[in-house]
Write a structure and sequence with these properties.
mainly alpha, 59% helix
Length: 100
């Protein structure tokens, strides 16, 4: 993806997260059941997934939470959500995918 495309995708997702309800610590409470009101291409989903994964690996658990307000387990759930979305168009069951 080009830089302009990435900025547009991240700006939309960032705005969506900012609109979510907040908990007692003023952190967003994100539910994957709430639609984003936008369709995403495979390239956009991969870009979002890769960004989350790289930030998780770079920052580690404590710094990741400090900067994002999400635990690594929440980020892992987000990665699972992205991975499942990538498999859906192919009609592949996530639990049946194995590496050879």
């Amino acid at each position: 993806m080009d830089e302009a495309g990435l900025k547009e995708v991240f700006a939309f997702v960032n705005g969506w997260v900012r609109e979510q309800p907040r908990d007692a610590q003023d952190l967003p409470v994100v539910s994957f059941e709430q639609p984003l009101d936008r369709s995403y291409s495979v390239s956009e989903i991969r870009a979002l997934r890769n960004a989350v994964e790289l930030v998780m690996l770079e920052l580690g658990q404590e710094e990741f939470f400090t900067r994002t307000g999400f635990s690594l387990s929440e980020a892992a759930a987000l990665l699972d959500h992205f991975n499942a979305a990538l498999l859906r168009p192919l009609h592949i069951e996530h639990s049946r995918v194995t590496a050879h």
